[in-house]
Automatic annotation (TrEMBL):
Domain of life (superkingdom): Bacteria
Region Disordered: start-end pairs: 22-48
Lineage of producing organism: Bacteria, Bacillati, Actinomycetota, Actinomycetes, Micrococcales
PANTHER family: HEDGEHOG-INTERACTING PROTEIN (PTHR19328), HIPL1 PROTEIN (PTHR19328:SF13)
InterPro entries for this protein: 6-blade_b-propeller_TolB-like (IPR011042), Glc/Sorbosone_DH (IPR012938), Quinoprot_gluc/sorb_DH_b-prop (IPR011041)
Protein's recorded name: PQQ-dependent sugar dehydrogenase
Residue span, Glucose/Sorbosone dehydrogenase domain: 64-379
Amino acid sequence: MDDFRAGVAVVGVALLLSGCTGSPEPGVVSPSPTASASAAASGADPWDGPVTADVDVVAQELPVPWGMAQLPGDRFLVTMRDDATLAVVHPSGDVEPVDGSEGPQQLVDQTVADGEGGLLGVAVEPEDSGPLFTVFLYRTGERDNAVLRAELDLDGMGLRDLTTILDGIPRSSNHNGGRIAFGPDGYLYVATGDAGDPANAQDPESLGGKILRITPDGEPAPGNPDPGSPVWSMGHRNVQGLGWDPSGRMFASEFGQDRLDELNVIEPGANYGWPDVEGPGESAGDQAGFRDPVVWWPTSEASPSGIAVTEEGVYLASLRGERLWRVPLLGGPSAVADGESPGFGEPHALLEGEFGRLRAVRAGSAGELYVLTNNTDGRGEPMIEDGRPVDDRLLRLGLTPVE
């Protein structure tokens, strides 16, 4: 189980924290030292350092929420893992269940909530403006995990034409992956886990332990490393966060086993080493051509699930770590304007211990962040106010650089 792991790593940190041992600390490697050095030296961008967050509670008493996709008007389509239901959460805090048409019952009938499995990721076709939206869902069934497509009608709060577009993804009570997201190229990316069998991650014929790239019809997307395969990258243990920065660079968060959790920059066809390598700088990984993470944490401090990537940072919602990690993107927009990929600043934590387990994070339309807590999933402790539980909640964060 990813966030009930024992053991604390002694981390040997490369480059920025080279040579430090003894106390568990996050580590950082910058793949763009020129951009990093120039941004850090100038001191011109206050977002290169830590930020603080003002927090508002938008909605509460959500039953085991897992994924969320943004709709126009700062509304969010949220999946409930165990109930296999969908709801639209409005900025006012109103929560409307999606219970019209035949789709919701079909979704319940074919979803199996088993441990970490159930109704997981959700994505909305980015070109849709409503009231009809094409939505994509990742669910655990009796035999496999699958990606589904359906039509969402916000006027009638209905779901219809539920269709399986990709199946055969290994399933288990643990390590199901589940995050799905549209990339800037217009294709759908699917994060899968090794389903408790590490060999899946290194098997090119298995869809487990991979990041997949498909068309909206579920076919391998044009330009994939193997034209006949949906596999985009491999060697993953359990990816649950996907995002892209303004330079088009792709990021993924990944659960480690008992040493190190990871933030990776994803390249097509690359192998990220699981189960041979966990974390950075291992000679076996270097010799085998595995890719190192760009940032890593002891598992006690992270267990990263969803991520959000903005112009100024990568944000990781952490379960066992009960905090929101921020990795600054040094120089942000100015680095991109100069044709550089921003480097990485020192990771720092927000919301540490304040709201418990954090499952997902999304960027809003006005620079704010939205964060889903996850204390009702059987591993957390729901918060009680006035004698009744208030978890789980959708939080809105306003961010300000620390002067």
